[in-house]
Structure formats: C-alpha cells, structure tokens
Fold this protein.
Amino acid sequence: MKVNFIAFAIPFFVSFMLLEYFISKNKSKKLHQFNESVANLNVGIAERIADLLTTGSFFFIFTWLNANYSIFSIKSTPTTWVLLFLATDLLWYWYHRIGHTVNLFWASHIVHHQSDDFNYTVAARITVFQAVARGLFWCALPIIGFSPEMITILLLIHGTYPFFTHTQLIGKLGWLEYIIVTPSHHRVHHSSNPEYLDKNYGDMLIIWDKIFGTYAEEITEPHFGLTKSLGSYSFLWQHFHYVLELVVAFRMAKTFRQKVKVIFGGPSDIDGRIRQLLERKYSQKAPDIQYSQKLIRAVVSQTIVTVTVLFFTILFSEYLMGVALFVMTGFIILSVIITGAMLEQKKWIFHLEFVRIAVASYVALSFFSNPYLIVVFVLLGVISVLFYQTIHSRSRELLFSN
Ligand SMILES: [Zn+2]
Ligand SMILES: [Zn+2]
C-alpha cells in the first residue's frame, strides 16, 4: 500500500503543540487562549489540504521552468546544496518583507499575524493564498538552475524550521542569536510594539535582516498580534476582511495613481475607518463570549475529527482521485468554517451543518457502497425533517448555554 508520508507532519507538529501546552500549564504560564488556538488550527488545517492540492502543480512548474528557462545547469554537490539553502533563505526574506509592505501580498500574509497569542499553534496560521504566493517566489530557483528534486527536499526543511521559532518557552540562545532566526527574533516579528514593527523577516538566517537594516533585538516585552486586533475567530472573516478592505479602498480611490497605491502601497495607505465600516456591516464582533463546557467539548471534538480526516486524506491521497479528493477537501473546509463560526455563536451554522452531513454521507457511500447504508441515510433524513424544530432548538442550546 502506497502512503503519503507528508501526512505524518500532522501528528509530529500536534505533539509539539500539546507538549508546549502542558509545559506552559505546568509552569503556570497562560500562553493559550481557547478560541485563539482553535482559530489558529483551523487556518493550518485548510493550508495543509491546499498544500496537498498545489504541491504537485508546483513540482510540475519547477520541472518545466528548469527544463526550458534555466540559466545554469546545477549538479547536486555539497557546495550547491549550501548555495541553494542561501538562495532559498534570501528569497524568503524578500518574499516575507514584500508580504508586509505591499498590500496585495499583505492581504494573504496578514492572516499569519492575526493571533494575539504566540505559541506553536500560531505557526500553523499559513493561508491557502500564502502557499500560492510563496510558490511563485520559489520559481526563481529552477530558473537559476537548481533541480526540482533538490528544491523539493530543501523546501521541506525550510518549511519545518520556522514552526520551532513560534514559542515563548525558549529564551535567548547565546551565540546562535547572531546567526539563526531564534524564537526571540520571531517574537519581535509578531509584536505590535512600535519599535518592533516591520522587523526580523528572516526564516532560518537572521543575517539578511542585519544586512538589509530590518533587525531588532528583543529588549522590551512583546505585545503579540496586529496593531489593531481583529477580535474575530471566523475562518472566513480572517481570510477575507483585508481583501474586502482593499476592494472598498480601490473603489473609493479617485485617480489611477491612488488605485495603484491601494494595490501596491503598504498597509498604512489604507484608511483605518474602512475596517470599522466593514465590521459593522459583515462581522458584528463577538462580545466576550463565555463558552459553556458543552460548547468547548463540541468544538474540541469537531477539531479532533477534522484533523483526523485531514490526516487520512493526506495519507491515502494516492488513492483519492478527482471527485473524491474534491469532496474530502469540501468536507474539511466546511468543518473549519463551522468550527470558527461556533466560536462566534453564529446561528447560520445550523443550516451549513446539513450541507456538511450531506457531504459526509456522500463520502461514506462512495467508500462503502452498502445498500443498507443508503437506507440508514434516508431514515436519518426523514428524522431530521420530522424533528427539525427539536434539533434546531437543541443546536441553539448548545451554542448559547452557559
Ligand atoms: Zn510576517
Ligand atoms: Zn510567524
């Protein structure tokens, strides 16, 4: 049986998240807020499934670029591996810096910075869009002449390392602080303290920040999150609020020059009042919700189910062709939308839940085409129509009980 080993990244990273959680609890340090952690995981779950769908295409693009447009023909030697590492890290530095300073790219990277917490779950906050934008930057590597195989291996390492810089449990690391990006450097990057804004873009080496003048040492205590906290845990709102802000700003801009500035200017070029306007219209901020134990249990079990489905989808991705993969992706995306909306007590999830159950039934039927299963689903359908009101009030109770 052929399995996709990339799936094991999920239990690997989750075990570090749990370890960090229990160590911080032991030390009586409150590093995790329940809603923040769930929202972070939701973003990460969607990114993993998007990664599964896009990795193959990027390998194909890298191979095509390397075969047709490469400047050099680079063989695999210890020296070229070092060069590839340096080139990748330098490209990342600029990709990341542009991600903060150009609105078009900030619209996707902003999601990584929305959490007011700073722990390993924040490392999972990489958006679907960011995965694509990052891939475009990596296209420079096959054009330089590195082979797609070398690039794929290096990107695996390069993608794993930054996970470990998202923690408050590790202090400064002595002489390593001069060379590599440490948790201390990355804490600065995730802070909204004025002296820390737009600093420490590096991924593995901190030397680029020192060379290009964007380095800051962690001196004062960092305050994590965006300058103006989003205060929303909705998967959809987190992903699209800035895109909407740009659309409004673009429509309000009068001249061509102003319109170009909306897209290619920086976040400070966007009027802060637009966010308030959109929030009033589309995202009534959740007041400080006191989650009931029942709701917490429901959110935790949903998250465990989604992560498990994600793990097996990736593990057996070789056997999931076209429609099946599309349906599994649909189930996972619906799940993270619903879990995010549960954290904000959105009433509309009740109806979306029916769609999710329909998708889950389709998945079950396509894997086990047993006629009795069809009877069970039809019966369940009839029961849900007959007892619609009761199920509806139970779901309200789950969301709003204290
Ligand atoms: Zn960043
Ligand atoms: Zn980060």
About this structure: The chain has a mean pLDDT of 91. The first helix runs from residue 9 to 26. The radius of gyration is 23 Å.
